[in-house]
Amino acid sequence: MRFHQLVRLALGGLWRQKVRTGLTLIGVLIGACALAFSVALGIGLREFIDTEFHGRDEFWRIRVMVGEPTPGPDGIPPEQVAVEGQMSNERRDRIREALTKKYLEEHESKPPVQLTAEALAKLEQLPGVREVRTVRSATGRAWLGEKQASGMAVAGKLGGLADRLIAGRLPDSDTAPEVVVSEFLLYQLGIRDDSQIEAILGQTIPIDVGGVRNAQAMVLARALTGRSIGDDLSLSQTEVLAKLVTQLPKSLDKFDLSSADRAALKLLLEQKPDSSTNRRDSGKFVSGAYRIVGVVRILTNEDRKKVDPLTPYEFRYGAIFLPADAGEELFQKLPWLKGQGFPMAEVWVTPGGDLAGVVNDIEAMGFRTQSGLKWFKSAKMEVTLIAAGLNLFAFVALFVSGIGITNTLVTSVVERTREIGILKAIGATRGQVLGIFLTEGAAIGLAGSTMGLLLARLLAIPADSWVHQLIEKQMMGDKMLTTTIFIFPVWLCAAATGFAIVVTTVAAYYPARRAAGIDPILALKYE
Known about the structure:
6-stranded mixed β-barrel; alpha+beta; 54% helix; single chain; 18 helices
């Protein structure tokens, strides 16, 4: 018996049992469709995670912070962390950890690794690093004529402010004596109308950073009025109060005070705080003149929810933004910052580079890091688990279809016993009879998987649109970079078809073997 004859006999047997074959075919179709659909969704979701993370520049940013203080070079004396008493090992470990922490807090420890200029240079030389950015901030104050307004002054790379500009532009370079201010700062300075915002561009204003200008005068004003009026004072009022603070010690004899009260008040007025240890109350500040070139909108509470969590808070809450080098030159004049390193830096990796490797290198230098790598791995793991669950249900559906095929062919063997006997009587071998029924199973698998793949592709069209809408709602306004969630590569079509054929062929093996073992003489007597 030739192959084409074997195939014709197999298809003829299926055709004579149209209803049963059709129902079995539907089962295979559903199983193959579920398998292809779920696998395509799993592939698409993993591709979605890769594209949405790797395709955004923010993903390649690593936030670097100074390391935690560590024990001195001699370590901690063993007797200082020895735990006494009878207790469980878990409790002993907790007590030892608490003793270690207490010792480090009470004794001089090795200072953490600082983000100095030398450290920043090493970060820039790491393989795959394209740029290192720093941020510096302090209390700031802007003056416009007699009016003043305070807010956080920030020095750093200002490119991230581009989408917040409502007027003007960003500074031309990192060294330019230019400043970008928030719309709220201008509002406090009396700039209310939109036309006034445009008019203020190009005007040079003085900027203070550091401690409060004339801190003692502010304290005196607060004592005299009973309220905090720092930003309500004009420049002339501030100067008058500063003169008053200077002249008061010389005029104490004119007040009706006891000698002790007079001495105490004089000591209070002449006391100079230590600017190196008490930054906020030191009164030390530095000033510079900068040209306003841009105005940015303030972030609302809703806006802050959408901001990348790794974005420095200085850019979310700042009011005065100076270019990196020009701002650093001003900040370095403050006594407590002169020669000091940075509290934080941003390392930007070349897109497509080894982000995990750069993170490991930075941590090996003694710094702490934050990056999108943790969220990426978590999202990838969740998607993988979801895809695995969907695939499991699809395999179950295909397995159930295989049971249906076994039932169909077992019944077919019983009904075709006489036909099998005739085939054997005219010379059909055991292997040929076995091949007929196995071919029937394979044919059902081929037809069912082909139609199942076609159905999966058709269902993916509306499903893709629906999933897109769900994801975009969760992204809070961000535009998706992914065009499709369901991906049907060629290997998936081939694998799904091959798997379905294998399952149906295996399911047909038992009835095929049973048919091949029928005695032809008994089969011819079967009615």
